[in-house]
Amino acid sequence: MATAEKDICAIRAKKTKVRTGCITCKIRKVKCDEIKPACKRCTDTGRKCDGYLDLEHLKKARQQQLLVRRQHKSPSLVSDPQSDTSFLSKIVSDEDLHWVQYFSQQTAPALSGFADKDFWSCMLPQLSLSDSSIRHALIALGSSHAHFEAEAGTGLGASIVKRDYSLKHYNQAIVSLQRQIGGSSRTTESPLICCLLFICLECLYGNRSLVLEHLRNGLNILDSTRFKVDTPGPVSFLMQKLNHIFSRLDAQSTLFGKPVSPQVLEVAAAPSSMNFSSFIDLTEGQQLLDLLISLSLNFIRSLHDECFAELSGGVSKHALQRKLQEQLLSWRSGLDTLESTSLDLGQFAQSTLSMLRIRHSACFIYLSNCFEPVETSYDNFIPEFTAIVDRSETLVRMSTQPCGIMNAATSTKPLFSLDAWFIPPLFLTAIKCRDPVVRRRAIVLLETNAGREGLWDARLHARVGRRVMDVEERGMLNFGDYRTNTFEDFRHASYEGTTLQDWCGSIPSGMPHESFRIQRADILRTLEEPCRSARVTFFTTRDGALTPLTCWEEDINF
Predict the structure, then answer these.
(1) Are residues 282 and 352 in contact, defined by beta-carbon separation less than 8 angstroms?
(2) Which residues are in the Zn(2)-C6 fungal-type domain (predicted)?
């Protein structure tokens, strides 16, 4: 077992579970005295003792369960058990084979978090053996990923692989998938996996609208009763994994304009018996946090879209906010307990704990301020913003990095990750934390560790964060006073090629006045060619709290 996997397994609550005993006592969930052939616990109470399962049978059953839980490398979707490249070389060209291998060795580790490694690195390459649509999509993604890294690092992406080659396989994947759907095949897994790979491709290309379209198609498939899988086994495990990944993407997409998911808001509003303070390991802890983040972001989105009352079933919005806050605090308590009762944490486990805490802090800050009419409410969370930056800086310095933006610290090339781990919390800090030192540290982290997490581009969000900071702090300059100068004086001034610190000679010591604080910075669209730029809309209440928003648009190069 790899060191990282050992670290994760080490963070597990110590519990014992007796698996012997008669069948009747096991059903009744009472302790059996295990007297044979019939236990006294049953006979003394007038019950019939149904006897005992064969120990060898129990052993085989447990082994079968482990095959499913550990993502065994032979899911039933793969008709041919061979998974080596010699078999694949018989059906694809040498160039195609190269990019399948590149996907397994380079792209899959970049995409996977600590809970999804086997899915990306093992299951998908094996599924591509028997499914041409998955194979073409996988080749397109592997080659596009290589082009992305080379282009961002040296500007020589075309020397690694031509974009036309990737697009050819992308189109072939679509054609092959359409042929499957139009035929007699009624499998769910292939369309879902292709949707997921298409999402990754469009994230690399920066096409937000197509990302959301593929995501919507995937969620529709998951919601369809025609595709429900209830039988245990590797296929249902694969569906569970896909469901978890799509749920994370759904939550992330609400920050990019995707409408609220009614089902998710119903779950948030409904009474819950889930215990968020108890989980046996980091994998379960991540799944619970993913759920809470999804519930919180969809709740906030429903407020923004003014559809909360319609979808919430009469639940008070303030009551739901308090409920989600309490659940997030309960989850943090559970993580504290798990960490305090775990011994000999390795570096991978420590970094995973920090990543989870970073995401938790950002979600709690965002949720806690969703009703506040003034931006100064964020000033109450300076300690939390500081903790986000402190942990992020520590993770960047670590040598063993599980995924995402941290990998960029040990490489000259930006890396791509599907899950959003660091860029959203650091961007939130850059635009909402008005402590001049802390927000600058967040911006520097984004600028110097260039990467892309889903639709979150570190360089773009660093530029937007710096622009927000410049506009807000301009009112603090000696020659500017918010009481005498108009907002237009500050907004139209340009800091191109310099910083506020250059203008002032030092970092400002105070915080911006509410009149100059930016409430929102919406990235409307991005262009990769001929130059990387984005259209951003900035919103502010320049006339004070509870007044109509004033907005303007800017094009920002990154």
Answers:
(1) yes
(2) 21-49
List C-alpha distances in Å: 66 to 59, 120, 237, 253: 11, 19, 11, 33
CA 286, CA 244: separation in Å to the nearest integer?
10
Amino acid at position 27, single letter: I
Global confidence as pTM: 0.77
Among candidates 281, 291, 278, which has minimal Cα distance to 324? 291
pLDDT given at position 469: 93
Q: Out of 56-70, 224-238, 277-291, pick the least confident.
A: 56-70
Write out pLDDT tens, residues 532-541: 888 999 998 8
Do residues 424 and 362 lie in contact, with contact meaning Cβ atoms separated by under 8 Å?
Answer: yes
Residue 323's pLDDT is 94
pLDDT grade for 424, boundaries at 50, 70 and 90: very high
> CA 450, 291, 313: angle at the middle one, nearest 5?
125
Is 96 in contact with 89 (CB distance < 8 Å)? no
Distance CA 437, CA 267 (A): 39
Contact 328, 364 (CB under 8 A): yes
Largest CA distance in the chain: 93
In a 13 Å sphere around the CA of 471, the CA atoms on its Cβ side amount to 28
pLDDT value for 353: 92
- Per-residue pLDDT reduced to its tens digit, 177-190: 998 887 766 678 89
How far, CA to CA in Å, does 263 sit from each of 219, 260, 294, 313?
11, 9, 11, 12
Give the β-pairing of 452-453 and 416-417.
parallel
* In the chain, domain spans: 3-53, 85-250
Predicted local confidence at residue 159, as pLDDT: 64
Which of 89, 204, 193 minimizes the C-alpha distance to 143?
A: 204
Q: For position 307, what pLDDT does the model report?
A: 84
Lookup: tokens for 333: 């308590």
**What are the angstrom distances between the C-alpha of 429 and each of 84, 141, 166, 476?**
46, 32, 36, 20
Query: DSSP secondary structure string, 241-286?
Result: HHHHHHHHHHHHHGGGTPPP-HHHHHHHHS-----TT--SSHHHHH
